[in-house]
# Entry
Amino acid sequence: MQAGLLDGVQYGDTVLEARGITKRFPGVVANDHIDFEIRAGEIHAILGENGAGKTTLMNILFGLLQPDEGELYIGGKRVEFRSPLDAIDLGIGMVHQNRKLVSAHTVIENIILGRPRAGTVLNLKRAEEEVNELCERYGFKIDLRAKVWQLSEGEKQIAEILKALYRGAKVLILDEPTSALAPPQTKNLLASIQAMASDELAIVPFITHKLPIVLEISDRVTVLRRGKVTARLETQDATEESLARQMVGREVIFRVESTKVETGKRILQVENLSTRSDKGFLALKGVSFSIREGEIFGIAGISGNGQHELAEVLAGLRKAEEGQVILEGQDITHSSSLERWRMGVGYIPSERVDVGSIGDFSLVENVAMNFYFDDDFSGPGIVNYGDIRQLTEELISEYDVAAPSPDTKAKNLSGGNLQKIILARVLARKPRLVIANLPTQGLDVGATEFVRNKLVEAKEAKAGVLLISEDLDEVLSLSDRVAPIYEGKFMGIIPGDVAKLEQVGAMMAGLRLEGNIIEETGDT
Amino acid sequence: MRIGGCQLKLEQRVTLAGWEAALMSILAIVFALFLFGFVFILDDVDPLSAYQEIFSFAFANPYGLPLTINRFIFLLLCTFAFIIPFKAGLWNIGMAGQLYAGALAAFGALFAFGGKELPSPDLSPGIVIPLMLMAAALGGAGVGAIAGFLKGKYNINEIVVTMMLNFIAFWLVAYMIKEGGPFMNPGGRGESFELPSSVYAPLVMDVPFTIFLVLGIAVLLYFLFAKSKIGYQIKAHGHNPAAARYAGISTFKIPLWVFVVGGGLAGLAGYHYFAAVPGVYKIARNYGFFGDLAFYGIICGLISLGNPLAAIPVTLLFGGLSIGGRFVQGKLNMGFGLDYALLGVLMITLVAFQFFYRYKLVLSPSKGSYW
# Structure
């Protein structure tokens, strides 16, 4: 392996080039003759929906997969990666969306892990100085002595970037760099990315949604759709609409408007509810609210402020420490999750893969997760798989799930399609209360629009919807009332048509705005 | 790897059909027999004639075949005792302890009817045998329940618990049957009192009725996993406990259920060997041997990929080879432990061949490569 192909590259030199990359998987061409190049000092975004072939391309560029056809060039020389080690040696760094850090170790230990120059006897002090220099140069704020498990998602991402830089990366691949970040963190990261680019680093962010970010920071954009390059353009020539059209292949409505529905009787009433997190501290500290028929109640907040615990308490997956949950007049504070399913609670969890589905199960069996106990789909002791299969087929066509058959395993679906089938399955129960926890996180524009429309439909069908989201635009456009949450408490409850982005953003950050907030405990 | 102008590559399998798995297992068996042939050659024995002796004694000999079938029934019950928790993602390695407890409970029921008295009482088989069966199942289930409860309630590792319970049950049997124990044989000899001939298990063509029981259970389990609610819940728990909990499946009840039922079946294996196999009819001095044999339930369960019907041929083969191997060892004057060695080689090969469940070899025309 010839390391050092990228030594002494100058601004504007082509550092990495892919020609005619093709990769086939059984039944699908994931990458179909993709050409791509990036120059030193450039930010070249790759944009595409889930299933467009982004992940495959990324894995090929990083040596995790080998292309069936096509060539890779680094610094003008042809190379072939047998493994990520080859890619790393040649100066390619990757920041995964699923962080690959050792959580029991400190940041600095993770950064030097696997690095040859660290030597047999660790010189942590020297390494720390070097890394601190990088932090200062690019404006990263992180405690190098902190253990990784104590870090927020944003800090973990910084640790990964530092790790790649410390290994001498000249090309930095970023997988969904802003997906887990709150607005201020996003701003900081974008500034750091630009600082790195001005240091002759080539940066390749892979992005599914968040088109404004692409427009803001990138120099060029390559758009993928169904494994093919559909557009390659200078960012200054692109607009949000044009990029979306290239990605999806049709016009996209960005803002799903919630319709006004006559609200009916109260479906859910929560009184002074508290609960603990997995680590044992009080994560939710006495919240009270109510949701009526035909209403979307939005909870806006950055992850880790108790909203996840709230969703789980309401779904019966977590014990309430204090307080009361009343569903249509019945106290369900101590009901099991199965009882709640039967009573009309429908929970769409944020962890699609780990909680919402079973990867090794077929779609029929996954749909059965919410129906195996239902009298319409089971006999005494027996699950009626025939009926559930029929339902699955109906749901696949109604929700336009891209799956070859109902027997496809859930793990073979893309994130968007998996979310569609989970949503379909939950809504098919016609729940009275829908709890949607980060329902569009990580989804592409097309699927996001779809999910939002379905939530609005559920509301029109007189369900009460609890929407938990980090995406302020989403919460504000869909919700009838919005409750920003911070450290386990609501910072107030504001009617959706009055709420302003800046105001809710400030409240999410812990600012309790007195005066113009309409405090509510449920009776409106 | 390259062969001539072609390239041999490993490719990950997307799906595995049932017949492919079966074919792979047969290839593994052939390969294992080929490997083990060298052991015979080293001992100046012709492998082919040795195998012929093994198989003909195990499967075609009027003395060997019933022995094989008795081992098969025993192994199949132990395999089910492993498979049921395995489907829920849990590991039962306590079949030995569960079958000891089953045997003790069965003899305990007999003891309560005065079965130890001499001369042997004339007991009514229609009442005593079902009660012994039930006691055996309950005894095994009781030991299993400990592991299931601790797992479900406190998430205590079931492997450690079932393993430790094996030792407890082993010494409990020793206490009960050795000199001075309540179940001690009046003649001493370190074994339990003998079954009165009135309650010998009924035989059908020299084979105890337990064969119908175990084959019935096989079919029942197959439908349990394919159709039933509890089967669905067990499988969901096995694949993803967090998702199962989300779907309203109790992460306490499922571990308890699988260990109770699995332990119960292992308890039946205890009844079968010590109260139904002709010529035994007591808790034998070498009962520990059967505890060791029970561990083959783990390997048979893994090879049959948790499928209760596929477990039938697998356990039949293992039962037959253990009988035939022991026979040929005596007949050809070969070293001690030949049967164990044969089963060991077979086991390792079968497990190694499971690699091909996930990957397949693909031969494709070679293409240019940079290196």
